[in-house]
Amino acid sequence: MDTNQDDLPVRYSEHLETPIVHLFAGPYVTVGTQRREVPEGSKQLLAFVALRRGRVERRYAAGTLWPFGNEERAAGNLRSALWRLRRAGINVLVADKWSLALCADVIVDLHVMDQWATRLIQGTAAGHDLDISPSVSEALDLLPGWYDDWALMERERIRQRLLHALEALSVRLACLGRFGEAVDAALLAVSVEPLRESAQRALIGAHVAEGNLTEARRTFLLYRDLVRRELDVEPSGDLSALVHIREDRPTFSRSWTPHSASQAV
Q1: Which end of the chain has a smaller Cβ tally under 10 Å, C or N?
Q2: How far is CA 110 from each of CA 24, 103, 113, 218, 252, rounded to the nearest angstrom?
Q3: Global pTM?
Q4: What pairing do the DSSP bridges indicate for beta strands 107-108 and 19-22?
Q5: Which is higher by pLDDT, 111 or 250?
């Protein structure tokens, strides 16, 4: 089976013959152990429909994906893209005269990752959800190199969703005493957005929970210098509550707990 299937936070062994649309490092499609490459002229159409999570009007899809020229030409381009998909053996879209949609049994890796993030944010994650999937890094940069408005909006939406999920995951792992993984989750969020204070808070909190006060101090001072230099601001009082500064010498708040940090994520 394709390794990306196993990396996602879902058990694909239950869906061995189910078509899976991979938007991370894609798009491409797998069915069981077979990988099927999407024709170049059909990639945007497949991604566009997969991102919509429902039926899409043909006219709207054609006009969005092929905005230059008249409606007849755009409709022709859409028909050609559908034909190329069928010719490649990729039968994951259902189309009628008016609309397009994914077939009901198709899995999309983005949807799976989005559901994983939702469980973490809502506090209902357990078991396999508490592992950091290697696919998260790819999900944080969805469809790289695509600059269409619809792709940019979805890329930013899932990026924000996953950053919140990683912060919540870090706090949850710290509560369970899995400090190394808590640090890893927070570091991944920080690496994507170093100026994001909630990610820095999760990282500092994980260090404090483990008793690594020097690491917490170093992280705070690096972040303070960064926001001073880049934004000409100071860290918030919430962050300073974890590492108190007196005459530029940090001391540490023993009132911090993973539970209290989760309220700030």
Answers
A1: N
A2: 7, 16, 5, 35, 40
A3: 0.84
A4: parallel
A5: 111
